[in-house]
Amino acid sequence: MIDLLIFYIHVVAASAVFTKRWQEGGMGEGFLSLAFMALIFFVGWGMASFVVKLLMPAEGFGRAFNRDTAGLALLTLSEAIFYYFYFHNGEGSEASRASSGTRSTPP
What we know:
mainly alpha; about 110 residues; elongated
């Protein structure tokens, strides 16, 4: 059941990122973001499963939270942190002000 919730979170996040990028940069940008998210998901799932296999016993922590679920949970947590910094506009950041041409301090 936890696995289904994690997959649902990924579907909702992919839909949100596709819609945001589609509105900002067009259809190609939206599909490119989906492909990037899929690549990160599949590679990250393999890496997270490897790490969890080293740290967790074979039976896991019960029926609902086995190794596969722990790997997906670790992947989701790390993806959330990564995507926050990657897709976030950062309107208050120095990089966004520099790219928009505004100064952070008065002349």
